[in-house]
Fold this protein.
Amino acid sequence: MRRLALASLVTCVFVTLWGVVSAEKVCYFSQEPDARQPGRLRWVMPGSKEDRCACTKTRPGPVNVQPVRWSHPPFYTDTPIFTDDQEDIHDYFDCHDPCQPNPCRYNAKCEKDGDSFKCDCERDIKGDRCDKPLDCLALYRARIRESGVYTIYPSQYPEGLQVYCDGNRWIVFQKRFDGSVNFTRNWTEYQDGFGELSGEFWLGNEKVRQLTSKGQWVLDIEAVYDGTSKSNQQRTWRWPFRVEGDSYKLVVEGFTDGWPFLSIDTPHAFSTYDRDNDDVNGTNCAEVEGGGWWFGQCESPQDSWGNLNGEYSLLGDPDNTDQEYRGMKWNVTGNVIVVRSSQMKLRSFTPRDCERLYDFGVKGNGTYTIYPAGKYKNRMKVYCDMDTEPKGWIVFQKRFDGSVNFTRNWTEYQDGFGELSGEFWLGNEKVRQLTSKDQWVLEIEVVYDDRLKSNKNMTFRWPFRVEGDSYKLVVEGFTDDLPFLSIETPHAFSTYDRDNDDVNGTNCAEVEGGGWWFGQCGSPQDSWGNFNGEYSLLGDPDNYTDREYRGMKWNGTGNVIVVRSSQMKLRRFTPSDCQRLYNVGVKGSGIYTIYPAGKYKNRMKVYCDMDTEPNGWIVFQKRFDGSVNFTRNWTEYRDGFGDLSGEFWLGNEKLRLLTSTHRWALRVDLVDDQGKTEQINVNKFSVKGNDYTLGRDSPASDFPQFNQHKFSTYDNDQDDEEPYNCADRQGGGWWFGACSDDISYSLNGKYHDGGLKWTGWAEHVIVKSIVKCEMKLRRY
């Protein structure tokens, strides 16, 4: 065999080892004189640092050798290794891959970086090797779903904090399940924590305080308990919360009526048997109840129920009908509850609105902190209505007893006034900020008396927004059910010191009282619409029976309305069509904004028919007086023309977009000049392709002529008849097949003095002129 050159030779060979074929690189060692040591030969390692290769340990023969890094020092021999008749002495080596095995933790991606590597960490995980997760939520995002003990690295604990993660994003700070750990501990033990994270434990008040000192956190309580009627009941409760101060006060947001727990209205300090911080003079609730807890009045059932750190009994209890129980016993009127196990957990969560809070599991009405602009930006205190469907409304006005004066100046209405737990106005600037992005629905709830009946309840909903420095109210749709404001005439907000109404020389806010979106303050509509006017608490001689009334009085023709209470609310809502609007409670026919392609994409203004059953049709063609010319070119039919409040064609491109997903029904409503009506229904209606081909799946008697026909206009002939252009001959754009003078079925043709010339489709024969037609579609 030819002797090797002094330079290294690297080649690839395939070696079969134990039946497995693998690719190996061969490492040929060469020799050269050592300039520093005359007479000695130096073995030269092949490869280079650029190759990031590592030779195997020096050993001629098979491949089962241990790899070493390229930086293995050179070695020497006094005699030549190679002779003319000697086999090449060689060894095998592997190229060193710094990412094999993956040195990065928590499913991070490893990338080569020269001779080394760098780790691409998942969100909220740091460290050179992605080994420092911020919290249990960061581990969950990194697809670490196994419950257990982990080290997390919040900013308060740069050296790391050991916690128990439940595998579903939560940090557990209390766990009890068998009574193996005594929870009657002193202040220092509760402060520092006790027990083992793998068993029963209390993480420590100081750790919980540090964790919840930054950002927004949610408390989760899970309990398994037995009652007198049922065993092994399981319940979960959630509230935004924090622990603060040297006394480790627990502050819980929202309403806690579903669980006898503590409210943000009355935060309580933590107490132990050697540190009495409860609200009872002369009594230490921690001594009475056992364990450390946030006690209020320890003799109340609420405090007894709320203590999850009390004594865990392992024996039969003579007070419980001699029945053996294991757990924490809570005595409730007519019932004995035995809590078998409990877990208290916390997790970071930044809700942007009340809807997100509800979806997260926070179910109680009450005052909460939201972040409309994202993480920790523009923090806002709001009152959330979690009972009204769909759940999660932000209340921005509430009146029920007249305890708050609503005759306020511009600045007060701008910033808000009152208490969120009582009567209040949230503030025009907050409402403007909230509705400046996305789509929002306004709800007004009213309880009122009139001459016929007391305590009537009415609810109204419309898409809306508040915009600009004058806080203009823009309402979509038809508002005839309530004399309110329409998108056709948006009004600016007025107060007694800032007149923005439409009446010259008169300030409606001074006349009517309160701040409001006034138009003509002399009209009944404006009088009715003002929910911020004077709230009377006394008998009123002007009332038709001189009877006492409490509320806001609206004078209508032949009637007197007394509004007892009102609430104005808002909620995000992105409707994909008119049907979704109707289902959420928007009942008036009119012009609305829909998002057929999903959230905030391809926004589209449409006219919704909310009266025709089943309710919620998108009208795409309407003619009734001939005021709009329908002889239009291809581009105009593609984009749409006319006014949605009058005669119009919505646009072929919009039809194509709408019908590209889901199934759609077509309905055509016709009225002739004799008042006769006709209705045509088509299933699986669609418009497809760049030529806007019409598709349908109906019996032959309905819409038979137009299946699979392309749309034609006078400047784009796509009909089936040569050499004629049906659109040019009959006027208007349509899905023409063959055309002739005595077959007129296009509803977009010329509108004569008596209406449209139309012969009918199959059995739908109307020989008179069509004076009114509507084409509409609805998802099914």
The chain has five domains: 10-95, 116-169, 170-348, 385-572, 578-779.
